[in-house]
Amino acid sequence: MARIQANHHAQRRILRPAVFACLLLLAASVTPASAQNQGYTVASGDVLRVTVYGDPGLSGSFPIGTDGTIGYPLLGNVAVTGKGVDEVRQAIDAGLKEHIANLSVAVVVEAYAPVFVVGEVQKPGRYEFRPGMIALELFALGGGQKEVLAQGDNAGVRLAGLRQDYADLGVQLLGQDVKRVRLEAELIGQPFTYLPSEEIGTPDPRIVRQVVDAERTLFELRRATLDAELKSLEQQKLGYLDEIDTLEKSGKLRDGELTLLDEDVKLAQSMVERGLTPKTQLRDKQREISATNRDVLEFGSFLARARQNLTVIDGRLKSLRGQRRGEVAAELRELNIDILRLRRKMTYSLQAMAEAGIAFDKKDGTRQAAYRFSAVRLVDGKYSEVTVGQTDPVRAGDILRVSLDLDEGDVAAR
To answer: Do the Cβ atoms of 64 and 42 come closer than 8 Å?
Structure first.
């Protein structure tokens, strides 16, 4: 009997710690919703659990949309983003009291919007958010520092190749940038002058000079061609203006002749009626006035044709300038896209150089990469990217971007 009691006491001693541990686990599983919700600001992608005591039909889970609202019965879309959990509860409680009295409302965050980590990490992807999470913690969840691509003895060869690729991209970018300046000068009708940009870097001055000289030659050739075409059209325009002026003056003289001939016809007709002159003289005057009228009509046709030609020349002058500007604008648009692509390629190349440089240095030392963090987050319905520090808090729904902290001068030196 004593042995049985001893075993019973021993079992109680063993069970007590286990029961206590279970109670701690149970408390930990029950309290986080209320404890973590304190001071938390809800965000798009969170799911709120609203409990209405007195009307279960108004209780339920409500996800927060990208517009920062939840669709709630009776109240419609309720704006909640940027508010604390208690502020949301007060807003729903106040809204419901306008419709139904004696209701009590409780609100907790049932599920947080997930967070994501991308970039220079071992395991990029989606992770569960926890209030109080910092950027470095999410970086650790993603597996920490990414293994560099260049490993072993090939690191030096790879680094040399990447340096050459980066230099080639720099020359391409220089050429595109000089061409951009030349096209802009053509577009606004200004002289072509190129000043090297710090963003482009500092290639070999001889290369810069060669590229600029080539674009200047093309600029002057295109400008000379356009000027020659415009000059030719202007000369044609002056010729038509002179022709129009001559025809108009001739027309005025013809009008004067018609007036005099008309008076002669009237006088001859009067004399024929009085028998003072034969009818043949009247017919001669009438034939003369008829011939003059035909000349006037013919001159009018010449004048109309000259004016029409002048209008065509004016149209060609405007069209030529507009066509050239349109072609330059279209080429400039495509060029800006190409420049953007080249800049991105150079960014990737610079990152690859940094990785290869780190691997190369690790053969003889313990050089570690430096990283910077930025968060892409939804603000007022639009995504924006902000820089964050290692110990800055991460918000629910954030996309943490981890990238190498590249010093271009240091990379180039290595």
So the answer is: yes
- pTM of the predicted structure, to 2 decimals: 0.44
Backbone angles phi, psi at 349, to 5 degrees: -65, -40
Strand order in the sheet with 47-53: 60-63, 47-53, 104-111
What's the mean pLDDT when you consider all of the chain?
A: 77
Say if residues 85 and 40 touch (Cβ distance below 8 Å): yes
Query: pLDDT tens digits for 368-414?
Result: 557 789 999 877 778 889 999 988 999 999 999 988 765 545 444 44
DSSP-derived secondary structure for 54-78: T-GGG-EEEE--TTSEEEETTTEEE
Average pLDDT score over residue span 172-192: 88
Count CB atoms within 10 A of the CB of residue 60: 14
Q: Around Cβ 112, how many Cβ atoms within 10 Å? A: 21
> 91 and 83 in contact (C-beta within 8 Å)?
yes
For the chain, state the CA radius of gyration: 44
Q: Could you count the other beta carbons within 10 Å of the beta carbon of residue 15?
A: 11
Assess contact for 115 and 45: CB atoms under 8 A: no
Please, which contacts does 278-286 make with residues 24 or more away whose CB atoms are closer than 8 Å? 285/261
Task: Report the alpha-carbon distance of residue 362 to residue 385 in Å, rounded.
Answer: 32
- DSSP H or E segment with residue 162: helix 155-188
For 279-321, write each residue's pLDDT tens digit. Answer: 777 677 677 777 777 777 776 777 788 788 888 888 777 777 7
Nearest 10 degrees: Cα torsion 206, 194, 174, 209: -10
Contact 402, 117 (CB under 8 A): yes
As given in the structure block, the two tokens for residue 224 are: 């000379």
The CA distance from 173 to 374, in Å, is: 27
Among residues 355, 350, 374, 366, the alpha carbon closest in space to that of 139 is found at 374
Q: Are 358 and 350 in contact (CB under 8 A)?
A: no
Q: At 228, which helix (H) or strand (E)? A: helix 205-273
